[in-house]
Every structure is written in structure tokens, then in C-alpha cells.
Design a protein that fits this description.
heterodimer, A: 252 residues, 0% strand, B: 223 residues, mainly alpha, globular
Chain lengths: 252, 223
């Protein structure tokens, strides 16, 4: 079957496809988030005793860790689309990068916010200048910078390319953020944040975390595509297919 | 190749020497900001010694950023920049020459004035020496990274504020390790080597990639 995937690189043909995909992603997001959070809240063991004693509040992990993962991944996704846009000069990939940015910023904020509420009972402080916290804050600033630069330039073409370049330059920070916790030699970088190691997590907790992460991915797809659809409509407003679509919509 | 580099470098330096106030403004901004902190937090010797390295670095960051706006702006307004983009010479080389001139005019004076500032903060001789070395390695990185931001925000309304939003997050590693080197020198000079090695690595990486990124950004801004 030789289907032409590049067909969907055109905003006009991607717009209806996105429209069909969005409800699917919403449903998947709902199922995963409900399942993950239910399992996380009711089916995971308490961490009251032992060497790693934490009370019920450790359940923030089911939001906090997936949100932190998403914050980094979405930046990489955004840079990926931006790079494709710069290389192949495709309109849709710039729009995609644009649509990803706010979702990424929200997840970064969510990770910082839930982290603060976790830090209060476990470290006794909402904020500490721990490397992981600081680099995550920098990531948030980079999302804000991308959005700010894009909205400061009136010429869409220049805005797309300039913001894309900025995003690519900012990519150097992502490994820093990642290794600020999983640093190869723990003696070299002391941090309050505990090292993350997926193999040492209790099965139920890992399952809930992964389910929520998958739900967040689906949520990101859904919101990104919704934002993408409105960006397409705004930018292609002068094209005939948009005019026809609007005419059809008003008649219905 | 080298002749082109020299040509642009000397041109920028000559232009700056014709308008000396621009250069001096940055330097005095640095000195004033550094002098304000003891007035704000108190003049106790111990506090100042702890605060010194960080304050000097933050002031250097701000001073370097203040001057960045002018890096390409004048050439952009009178059309010189467009001609530079059109020449057969590699744009990144021309950009590197302009960045070098910018550093000689704004970064190097900060390195030279550092001992004076160090005395204000009662830093030891070792710490002052280390501050000069760290600034010598770090300020070129600031100019190089900053040039990317300056090229991206060329001719935009509110470009200066936007520039700080884009560039300051990228400056943070230099700030951390630059100030870290000076603080570590207060304990043992041998401890400062990793900091200097990292600053050197930043410098090499920035020298390699920043001219390319800034010339790409200039092409985007000019087209």
C-alpha cells in the first residue's frame, strides 16, 4: 500500500485529519489518567515505614514525575518540529512547534508546582536551589522565551524561523536538566532530589506512573492538535478552503 | 580569510573609538551596579566576601547584555549589515569579528577593572586573580551567546527586554561556574580547576556554534 504521507504536510488536508484524531486522543487521555490515578491512589502501598519513609503525600509522584518527563520531552518534540521546519521549509511543522510550546510550558509549570508542594512536607521548604529545580525553572524560562519571541515578531515567516532557531539553541540545556538528577557519578553532583531509577520502583507505583505519563502524552496530542487547528485557521484564513469551510459551517 | 576578520574587527573598533561614551557607559554601569550592593546589604566584611563573586558576575551579565543591543543595531539601520550578508565572505566569520570587537570593548574592560572591584569586596589576592581568570574565560561566552539573541531580536519593538528574556536563561551556567570558581578559590586554589575547565569548555563550544547560529539568525532577521 503506497499511501502518500506527505499529503498531510499540507494544512488543508491535515486540518480534517486532526479533527478526527482529537476526540480519540481525548478519550485515551481520559481512560489512562483515570486508570493511572485510581491505581495510584487506591492500589499502591503506603510508604509509611522503612528506610524511605514517606506519608501519603508521596502520591504527588503520579502527577509530578510524568509532568517533569513531559516538560523535557515536549521541548525535544518542539525542537524536532522546528528543525524540520527550518530544513524542509514546511509551514505545518512550524505551526506544530508553535502548538506544542504552551502545552510544554504548562507541564513545566505543573512539575514545578507539584514539586513545591512535595518539597514542603519532605524537605521542609517549598523551594530550594537544588540543581534539578533550578534547571527545570530554566526550562520554563526557555518555553516563555520561545513564546515571547514568536509573539513579538509580526511577520509570521520571520517569527517562525527566529523562534525555531532559539528553540534549537536552547536544546543544549535539556541534557543539563536530565543529568542534573541522573548524574553518572553521584559524588560529583550532590542534590536534595533523589536519583530516579525506574528499576527500583515498586510495580504498582511504576504502573500508575506510566499510565499517567501515557495519559499526559494523549492529552498533549489532543491539546496540541486543537491549538494547531486554530493556528491553521488563523494563518490560512485567506485561502479558499477555509472560506468554504466557514461557509459550510455557517449553513449547518 | 584572516584579512576579512581583521578588517571588520578594526572597523568596529574604530567606530567605537569615535564614540567612546558607548563603551564607557557599559563599564560605568558595571562599576555602579557592583558598588550599589554593599550599600543595600550592609558593608560588613564577611558578608561582602561571600557576596562578592556572585555580585560581580551578575553585574557582568547585565553589563554585557546592556551592550548587546548595539551589537548589530547600528549596522542594521544604515544598511551595512545587509551588505555584509550579501558579500562572498562567510557570514559567520564576519559575525565572529563583530563579536570579538564587542568583547574587546565590553568584556575585556570588565576583566581589567576586576581587581578594583575585588578590593571593594575585600577579596583575597587569590580570589581576585581567580576572578580575573574566570571573567577572561566567561565574558567571551556571554558575548557569543548574546550575539545569537541580539541577531534574533534585531529591529523588534521592545527588543531590549525581549533580549534579556531570551538570553539570561542561557547565561546561567556561565554565572554558576564563574562565580563558583571565585568562591572555591577562597578555600583552596586547587579546587578551582574543574570550574575553569568547564568555563573553557563553554568557551570552545560557544566559539564553535555561536557564530553559526548568529549568522543564521541574522539571515532570518534580514530577509
Amino acid at each position: 500500500m503506497a499511501s502518500n504521507w506527505f499529503k498531510f504536510a499540507a494544512p488543508a488536508s491535515f486540518y480534517p485529519l486532526a479533527g478526527r484524531l482529537i476526540p480519540m486522543f481525548w478519550i485515551l487521555a481520559g481512560i489512562c489518567l483515570l486508570a493511572g490515578l485510581y491505581w495510584g491512589f487506591f492500589q499502591t502501598p503506603d510508604q509509611l515505614g522503612g528506610s524511605n519513609a514517606q506519608k501519603e503525600y508521596y502520591r504527588i509522584i503520579f502527577i509530578h514525575v510524568p509532568a517533569a518527563w513531559m516538560s523535557m520531552w515536549l521541548y525535544v518534540v518542539m525542537v524536532g518540529w522546528a528543525a524540520i521546519g527550518l530544513v524542509f521549509n514546511t509551514r505545518l511543522s512550524f505551526m506544530m512547534a508553535n502548538a506544542v510550546a504552551p502545552t510544554g510550558a504548562i507541564f513545566t509549570f505543573l512539575a514545578l508546582w507539584t514539586g513545591a508542594f512535595w518539597g514542603r512536607p519532605s524537605w521542609g521548604t517549598y523551594w530550594d536551589w537544588d540543581p534539578r529545580l533550578t534547571t527545570e525553572l530554566i526550562l520554563f524560562f526557555m518555553y516563555v522565551g520561545y513564546i515571547a519571541l514568536h509573539s513579538a515578531i509580526d511577520d509570521t515567516r520571520r517569527a517562525d524561523r527566529a523562534a525555531a532557531l532559539l528553540a534549537i539553541v536552547g536544546l543544549v540545556m535539556v541534557p543539563l536538566i536530565f543529568w542534573s538528577v541522573n548524574c553518572p557519578d553521584p559524588n560529583q553532583c550532590a542534590a536534595l532530589h533523589q536519583r530516579s531509577n525506574l528499576t527500583q520502583i515498586e510495580g504498582n507505583i511504576l504502573f500508575s506512573m506510566l499510565a499517567v505519563t501515557f495519559g499526559f502524552w494523549m492529552y498533549s496530542f489532543a491539546t496540541t492538535l486543537m491549538r494547531l487547528r486554530s493556528i491553521i485557521l488563523t494563518r490560512e484564513a485567506d485561502n479558499t478552503w477555509v472560506q468554504e469551510l466557514l461557509a459550510k459551517g455557517s449553513r449547518a | 580569510m584572516l584579512r576579512v576578520f581583521w578588517c571588520v574587527l578594526l572597523r568596529d573598533l574604530t567606530l567605537a573609538m569615535r564614540r567612546r561614551t558607548d563603551v564607557l557607559t557599559t563599564l560605568f554601569f558595571f562599576i555602579i551596579v557592583v558598588s550599589l550592593f554593599p550599600l543595600g546589604v550592609g558593608t560588613e566584611r564577611q558578608i561582602l566576601q561571600i557576596l562578592g563573586p556572585g555580585v560581580v558576575w551578575v553585574a557582568a551579565l547585565l553589563a554585557s547584555m546592556l551592550a548587546l543591543e548595539r551589537l548589530f543595531a547600528a549596522d542594521y539601520e544604515d544598511g551595512t549589515l545587509e551588505q555584509m550578508v550579501l558579500t562572498a565572505q562567510p557570514l559567520s566569520l564576519l559575525v565572529l569579528a563583530k563579536i570579538t570587537a564587542h568583547w574587546l570593548l565590553t568584556g575585556l574592560p570588565l576583566v581589567l577593572i576586576a581587581p578594583l572591584v575585588g578590593m571593594q569586596y575585600h577579596l583575597s589576592d587569590d580570589a581576585i586573580l581567580m576572578m580575573m581568570v574566570a571573567l577572561l574565560l566567561g565574558t567571551p561566552v556571554l558575548s557569543l551567546i548574546g550575539a545569537i539573541g541580539a541577531a534574533l531580536t534585531l529591529g523588534l519593538r521592545g527588543g531590549g527586554i525581549l533580549l534579556s528574556l531570551l538570553i539570561l536563561p542561557l547565561y546561567i551556567p556561565v554565572l554558576v561556574y564563574g562565580a563558583g570558581a571565585v568562591t572555591a578559590s577562597g578555600i583552596d586554589m586547587a579546587d578551582t580547576r574543574p570550574y575553569l575547565a568547564l568555563l573553557g569548555a563553554f568557551l570552545v563550544a560557544a566559539l564553535t556554534f555561536a557564530p553559526l547560529a548568529s549568522s543564521a539568525a541574522l539571515k532570518i532577521s534580514i530577509e
